[in-house]
Amino acid sequence: MAESKFAQFITAKKIDPRRILSASRNLEKFRPEDRAIKLKKRQGKVEGADAAAPKETRKSRSGRPVTDRTLTAAIKGAKLSGPAKTRLLRAVNHLLEQKKQGQVELKVLF
């Protein structure tokens, strides 16, 4: 069976799958500033909220890193959801940036 595009890419760039898991865990970790963003968004939706108050436009992290199961599915070429692909892309781009290489687009990986 042929390797998936993702498997070929990480082999060509010499990226260890364990590093992808670790990078994703650090990138997607839910932090206090994310909780503050969610709180402001929730408070802005409450009825009777001040319409003139500034709305929260930033997006919080998901708090859901790439799992071993997701990574295995990507290497095998199984179907993945859009958010899972995006999380993998973010982790791979972070590792490429550390290696001083250019970032890639989603189409290159999947």
* Average pLDDT level: 90
Uncertain segments are none
N-C termini distance: 17 Å
Number of domains: 2
Principal-axes shape call:
elongated
The radius of gyration computed from the alpha-carbon positions, rounded to a whole number of angstroms, is 18 Å
Query: What's the number of helices?
Result: 6
Roughly what percent helix?
Answer: 55-70%
Main beta-sheet strand count, sense and barrel state: none
Q: How many strand segments?
A: 0
Q: Could you tell me the strand content as a percent range?
A: under 5%
Structural class designation = mainly alpha
What's the helix-strand series? HHHHHH
Task: Describe this structure as you would to a colleague.
This protein is mainly α and 110 residues long. The chain folds into 2 domains: 1-29 and 65-110; 31-62, no CATH class. 58% of the residues lie in helices and 0% in strands. The chain has 6 helices and no strands. The protein has helices at residues 5-12, 17-28, 32-45, 68-76, 82-98, 106-109. The longest helix is centred in the C-terminal third of the chain and has 17 residues, at 82-98. The chain is elongated, with a radius of gyration of 18 Å. 13% of the residues are buried. The mean pLDDT is 90.
